[in-house]
Design a protein that fits this description.
The chain contains 18 helices and seven strands. By secondary structure, it is α/β, with parallel strands linked by helices. It has two domains: about 180 residues; about 180 residues, Serine Threonine Protein Phosphatase 5, Tetratricopeptide repeat, CATH 1.25.40.10. A five-stranded mixed sheet has the order 4-3-5-6-7. Helix 7 packs antiparallel against helix 8. It is elongated, with a radius of gyration of 32 Å. The termini are far apart.
Length: about 425
């Protein structure tokens, strides 16, 4: 500070920087900030060379990220912790980043450096960024895939001219805030919080698609291209849960509960095998047999599971030739034994409710005889079929049942 010719105090750039630094640091305690319970803690620990840059970083990037994350409609709230200069400078590598992430009880930390300098003869801003995420224990393979995706999406370098600093900072905050939410969504998924993961993926999709010319921003283009796959992953877990409940409780209501997730996957991954099978089951329980058949026919149809499903539906609908054709295509093909058991149990469930579907007794025997090699149960089914069927009905199946009974009797003698 000096006195000018008029006898007034004159502030030099150094004085202004020192005053801003004092004001800036007075607002932030030196102790390590702690994330509040039940909140998703995001830590920004980016170093700057001077305090003017730090103010710009806070106003043009951190505040925007904070506002964006806090506008999330998910029940869990985000908490953005902006590390002061002293703490940011301590984080120099992944090891220290992990340590401070744990101390702050945070979930994700973005650290690195923002500086100005001459690059190719032009004054430019340079961001060097890294990130670490905390999540529940997951398999080594999944953890590696997750880490690779984070490193791929978080830009390691962002460079823009001082002449374009408004657009440059805007691009930086857009990339960071969407990458952060996307990575938190993945972390929530692998940690088992499906509800949060689902909500965040849909938010990100809507947010990015609402940005003009987002296709010109590589990071956003990559994220939006991967969202359908990520949403399908979450929906598939829900389907798996409901299917397991169905198999253990034998209650159709659990398949009905899949409808919401099946509709979503129809948009994100129309050819998803798991969804096609469960959608076919849903239609079957709703009484729409033809739609159930159409759903299975959309698939390639060369695998055993598809043939068994289609064979059952055709048998149920009375297409005996079609059913026999598909069941015979499963002969001598290796698959998990529980597939045959599940098919047999499913037929038994249907027969319990619809005993007049006598053709299904034959096909249950067919599975026991040809696929499970259980001749005792096969014989019971074939005999029951012959006893229950009406005279002149299912003539082809009658002849086959008698043929198989003869073979069984010869084996037993």
């Amino acid at each position: 500070m000096k006195i000018n010719k008029e006898g007034e105090l004159e502030w030099t750039p150094t004085d202004i920087a020192e005053a801003i630094s004092l004001l800036f640091n007075s607002k932030r305690p030196r102790k390590i900030p702690k994330n509040k319970k039940e909140k998703i803690g995001i830590i920004i620990a980016i170093k700057t060379i001077d305090d003017f840059d730090r103010i710009k970083l806070e106003n043009d990037v951190v505040l925007e990220i904070n506002q964006y994350l806090k506008s999330s409609k998910s029940e869990e709230e985000f908490e953005v912790l902006y590390y002061p200069k002293e703490l940011s400078e301590r984080i120099t590598d992944e090891k220290t980043a992990k340590a401070y992430l744990a101390k702050s009880r945070g979930h994700l930390i973005v650290y690195g450096l923002m500086e100005q300098g001459k690059i190719d003869g032009d004054n430019k801003y340079l961001f060097k960024l890294h990130g670490v995420v905390r999540h529940s224990p997951i398999s080594t393979i999944l953890s590696k895939i997750f880490s690779l995706e984070f490193r791929e999406l978080l830009p390691s370098k962002i460079i823009f001219s001082e002449n374009d600093e408004v657009l440059g900072f805007e691009l930086t905050e857009k990339c960071l805030k969407h990458v952060i939410k996307y990575i938190v969504a993945i972390a929530s998924f692998v940690s088992g919080d499906l509800k949060l993961s689902k909500a965040l993926y849909f938010e990100i999709k809507n947010d990015i698609e609402g940005i003009n010319n987002y296709e010109n921003i590589d990071v956003l283009k990559i994220i939006i291209s991967r969202i359908p796959k990520r949403i399908t992953e979450v929906m598939s877990v829900y389907l798996g849960v409901y299917y397991n409940l169905y198999t253990s409780k034998r209650d159709n209501k659990y398949i009905a509960s899949c409808k919401e997730y099946l509709d979503i996957i129809k948009e994100t991954d129309p050819e998803n095998l798991q969804a096609c099978f469960l959608r076919s089951m849903y239609y079957f329980f709703e009484g729409n047999i033809q739609q159930a058949i159409n759903e299975i026919k959309r698939l390639d149809g060369s695998d055993t599971v598809t043939k068994l499903n289609l064979g059952f539906l055709l048998a149920y609908s009375g297409d005996i030739n079609g059913a026999l054709y598909n069941y015979k295509k499963t002969f001598y093909k290796s698959t998990f034994s529980n597939i045959y058991n599940d098919t047999e149990i499913f037929i038994s469930d249907v027969l319990e409710k619809e005993p007049k579907k006598t053709q299904l007794y034959f096909f249950r025997g067919f599975i026991n005889f040809k696929l499970k090699n259980d001749v005792k149960l096969a014989k019971e089914d074939f005999l029951f079929f012959l006893q229950k069927k009406k005279k002149g009905e299912f003539v082809k199946l009658e002849k086959l049942a008698q043929k198989y009974l003869s073979i069984i009797d010869r084996k037993n003698n």
